[in-house]
Amino acid sequence: MADETDIRNIDFLAQATFTGSRQTAHEFVRNVLRRAILSGELAGGTRLVQADLATMLEVSTTPVREALRDLASEGLIRFDPHRGAVVQELSGEELREIYMIREILEPFALRLAVPKVTPELLERLRELHEKMASEPNSADFADTNRRFHLMIYEAAGYPRLTAIIQGLVDASVMYIGASLKDVPDLRETAVHDHAAILAALEEGDADAAVEAVVTHLRLSLKAFEARSQKSAT
Question: Cα-flanking dihedrals φ and ψ of residue 158, to 5°?
C-alpha cells in the first residue's frame, strides 16, 4: 500500500544533500520533494512526516513545513487532518475525469492561442521540445512537458482559463513521470506528439494542433491505464 511507504527507505531522499550554495533550505527541500513526486519515487498516498524529512535532508523543520505548503498549493500533496502531509493520490476514475475535462478545455484554449503565437513563443517552445527530447530524468521530463503546454495556453490571453487548465495538469502531472518508467516507448511517443503540436503552431494550423494535443492527452491516459494494469498483476 502506498500509504505504508516509509520515506526513510527512499534512496532519492536519503542521498539528497543540502549545500546552501545556490538555494535556500526551503528551496532545496521543495525541489527535492517535487522531483521525487514527479518521478514517482514518492507514490500517491505516501505520508510526509516533517521530522523524518528534516532529519533525512539535514535541515530544520521550518523549511520542510514551508516546502510542504508550496507543494500543497501546486496540488502535489494534501494535508490530511489525521495523517498530516500526504502525497496526492487520484483514483483511476478521478484521473479519467480530469483527462475528459482536459480534452474539452485544452483544444478550446489552443484555438484561442494559435492566432497569438509569436516567433518568440515558438522559439521558447522549440527549446523546451529539445530539452524533452534529451531529458533522461522522469521528473524533469514531466515538468518540462507541463511547461510546454501551459506556455501555449497562456498565449491565449485568458488567465482564468489557463488557471483552470493548470490545476488539472498539476493534478495529473505526477503520473506522467511514474508512467515513463513502466510504459515502453512512452517518452519517444510523447516527444513525437510535441513535435506535431509545434509543427502545427509554426504553420498556424489550429485543426492540426488540436488533433495533436488530443492524441497526446489520450496517450497519457492510456499510459496510466497500462501502468495500473501492470501494478495490479
Answer: -120, 90
CB 209, CB 114: distance < 8 Å: yes
pTM score = 0.77
Residue 227 has what pLDDT? 64
- Closest by Cα among 140, 147, 193, 188 to 170: 147
Residue carrying the nine cell digits 495538469: 169
Residue ranges for the chain with pLDDT beneath 70: 1-12, 14-15, 17, 19-21, 177-178, 180-184, 226-233
According to the model, what pLDDT value does residue 185 have?
79
Q: Which uninterrupted H or E stretch holds 86?
A: strand 84-87
Q: Is the Cα dihedral 172, 175, 179, 181 positive or negative? A: positive
Instruction: Give the three-state DSSP class for 68.
Output: helix
CA distance 132 to 145: 7
pLDDT at 79: 93
| Contact residues for 170 (Cβ-Cβ < 8 A; gap 6+) | 74, 75, 76, 146
- Closest by Cα among 117, 153, 148, 108 to 130: 148
- Phi, psi (rounded to 5 degrees) for 6: -95, 115
Neighbours of 88 (CB within 10 A): 19
Positive or negative, the CA dihedral 121, 122, 125, 126 is: negative
Residue type, 175: Y
Distance CA 213, CA 201 (A): 11
Q: How many CB atoms lie within 10 A of CB 194?
A: 22
